[in-house]
């Protein structure tokens, strides 16, 4: 089937936009949590509170962490503050996030 | 003005094919759109006199840049005339303010949807509807601006139901949700003046909220009208009862003027509603019987003594958490008002931006 010349066709513009995402290098998983500093960041949703608390109890009983940092997000529907993220990043070897929606 | 466009060009042979390709490529949320031709987009950019590559900000959750070019394309698709697009740009600016938490609004399981409230002289100038049927159809400006905002959130933000948009029930406003304030029928200052702008300014206030709960508030005393509104707010299922935040009350001009004529100020109206829109702890236990448990305590237990069955939870924690707008037709023998609960303190908080028209 012959196509029309470009000049007689209707030209539409794509409304989509692509994110310009920076490349990131995820942190390496720690092989052995014993002797490491762990952080727990709870999102604050009461529906997940029991599960998250139980997770903390089981993990701290099972492993010998050098230190434990517990934090709760101020707004469960928004990202953590840069201060909280900075604190956890600088004081912990690994962080557990969760839970509830 | 020499306009350099960066968007991909898609070539079609007919209007029918243009409409269908918008569906095939996922450019629409289900409603048909105006095919965004290069001619229409160029015409709008020439009117705006702004750099097409200028980014207003990134739209979550995809975090793609909302360039002027992309905003114009989506606005054309929504049916906007070029002079509606500054309203859309102001709406995007408002939603990108941190307290609005657009990322959360786009993704939550709650039904929250951004409502655009247009106010100022531009309402009349551009033909926005602020009278009969204000929440419904019939006005190109209301519909097109509302559609443009949704298409921006769909195409640039990437929030699709069942994917990142996890709204369990959704909201009819997720097709278009735009009203205008009735300046002639408003006995108090416009909402944009309350939010800090000048009376002669044009503005759009974005507020994340549910669909309007329509109330027949009758023709009684101010207290009777406001008690009706407060009662409608005082339910254990009201999200604002659970998580605080702001709530919207829309009054038709009849209700507003009756109350103002009796000597009530806007602030006194809000104070009364705040005081009387309450849920007792005894009633609250029906929804959250384990509220005493540290792991199951609702947000409001931080402020109220749960051991006291008669203690009350204010649905609007403070009078200033009530956004009050006068809109709609005059009303019949009795007045009508509406209440729009919100996503609470989590996001969607009212943000007002001035509308900058091209010189």
The largest contact between protein chains, plus residue counts on each side, is:
A-B, 26 and 53 residues
Rg over C-alpha atoms of chain B, rounded to the nearest angstrom: 21 Å
Structural class of chain A: alpha/beta
Mean pLDDT of chain B: 94
Share of residues in helices of chain B: 25-40%
Q: How large a portion of the residues of chain B is in β-strands, by DSSP E?
A: 15-25%
Mind summarizing the main beta sheet of chain B?
A: 4 strands, mixed
User: What order do the helices and strands of chain B follow?
Assistant: EHHEEHHHEHHEHEEHHEHHEHEEEE
**Percentage of residues in helical conformation of chain A:** 10-25%
Query: Strand fraction band of chain A?
Result: 15-25%
Class inferred from helices and paired strands of chain B: alpha+beta
User: What average pLDDT do the residues of chain A reach?
Assistant: 87
Write up this protein.
The complex is a heterodimer of chains A (101) and B (359). Chain A has 2 helices and 4 strands, in the order E-E-H-E-H-E. Chain A has helices at residues 49-62, 82-91; strands spanning 10-13, 37-42, 67-72, 94-98. In chain A, strand 2 (37-42), helix 1 and strand 3 form a beta-alpha-beta unit. The radius of gyration of chain A is 23 Å and the shape is elongated. Helix content of chain B is 32%, strand content 17%. Chain B has 13 helices and 13 strands. Chain B has helices at 15-24, 38-48, 68-78, 85-95, 102-107, 122-126, 140-156, 191-194, 222-233, 239-243, 253-261, 266-276, 281-284; strands at residues 9-12, 55-59, 64-67, 113-119, 178-180, 203-209, 213-218, 247-251, 278-280, 312-314, 322-326, 335-340, 351-354. In chain B, a hairpin with a 4-residue loop joins strand 2 (55-59) and strand 3 (64-67). In chain B, helix 4 (85-95) packs across helix 7. The longest helix of chain B is centred in the middle third of the chain and has 17 residues, at 140-156. The two termini of chain B are 15 Å apart. The mean pLDDT of chain B is 94. The chains are: A alpha/beta (101), B alpha+beta (359). The A-B interface holds A 3-4, 6, 9-21, 46, 49-50, 53, 75-79, 101 and B 5, 7-15, 17-18, 21-22, 25, 27, 35-39, 41, 58-59, 62-67, 69-70, 73-74, 77, 101, 103-104, 108-109, 151, 155-156, 166, 294-298, 343, 345-347. Strand 1 (10-13) of chain A pairs antiparallel with strand 1 of chain B.
């Amino acid at each position: 089937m012959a196509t029309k010349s470009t000049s007689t066709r209707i030209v539409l513009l794509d409304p989509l936009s692509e994110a310009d995402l920076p490349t990131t290098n995820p942190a390496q998983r720690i092989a052995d949590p014993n002797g490491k500093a762990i952080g727990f960041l709870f999102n604050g949703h009461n529906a997940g509170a029991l599960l998250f608390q139980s997770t903390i109890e089981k993990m701290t009983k099972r492993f010998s962490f050098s230190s434990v940092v517990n934090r709760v997000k101020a707004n469960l529907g928004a990202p953590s503050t840069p201060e909280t993220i900075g604190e956890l990043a600088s004081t912990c070897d690994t962080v557990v996030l969760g839970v509830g929606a | 003005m020499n306009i350099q466009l960066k968007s991909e060009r898609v070539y079609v042979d007919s209007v029918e094919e243009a409409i269908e390709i918008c569906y095939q490529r996922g450019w629409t949320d289900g409603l048909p759109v105006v095919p965004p031709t290069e001619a229409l987009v160029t015409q709008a950019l020439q009117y705006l006199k702004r750099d097409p590559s200028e980014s207003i900000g990134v739209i979550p959750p995809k975090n793609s840049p909302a360039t002027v070019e992309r905003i114009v394309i989506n606005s054309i698709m929504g049916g906007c005339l070029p002079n509606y697009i500054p309203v859309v740009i102001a709406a995007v600016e408002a939603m990108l303010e941190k307290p609005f938490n657009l990322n959360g609004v786009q993704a939550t399981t709650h039904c929250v949807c951004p409502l655009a409230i247009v106010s100022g002289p531009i309402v009349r100038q551009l033909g926005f509807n602020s009278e009969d049927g204000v929440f419904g159809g019939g006005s190109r400006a209301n519909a097109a601006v509302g559609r443009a905002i949704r298409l921006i959130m769909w195409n640039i933000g990437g929030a699709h139901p069942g994917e990142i948009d996890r709204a369990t029930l959704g909201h009819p406003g997720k097709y278009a949700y735009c009203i205008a304030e009735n300046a002639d029928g408003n006995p108090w200052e416009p909402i944009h003046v309350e939010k800090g702008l000048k009376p002669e300014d044009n503005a759009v206030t974005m507020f994340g909220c549910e669909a309007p709960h329509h109330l027949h508030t009758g023709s009684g005393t101010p207290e009777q009208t406001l008690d009706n509104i407060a009662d409608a707010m005082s339910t254990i299922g009201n999200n604002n009862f659970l998580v605080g935040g702001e709530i919207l009350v829309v009054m038709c001009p009849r209700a507003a003027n009756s109350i103002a004529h009796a000597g009530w100020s806007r602030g006194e109206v809000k104070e009364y509603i705040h005081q009387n829109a309450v849920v007792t702890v005894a009633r609250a236990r029906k929804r959250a019987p384990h509220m005493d448990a540290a792991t199951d305590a609702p947000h409001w237990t931080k402020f109220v003594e749960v051991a006291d069955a008669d203690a009350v939870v204010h649905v609007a924690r403070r009078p200033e958490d009530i956004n009050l707008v006068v809109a709609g037709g005059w009303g019949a023998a009795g007045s009508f008002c509406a209440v729009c609960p919100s996503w609470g303190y989590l996001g969607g908080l009212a943000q007002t931006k001035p509308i900058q028209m091209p010189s």
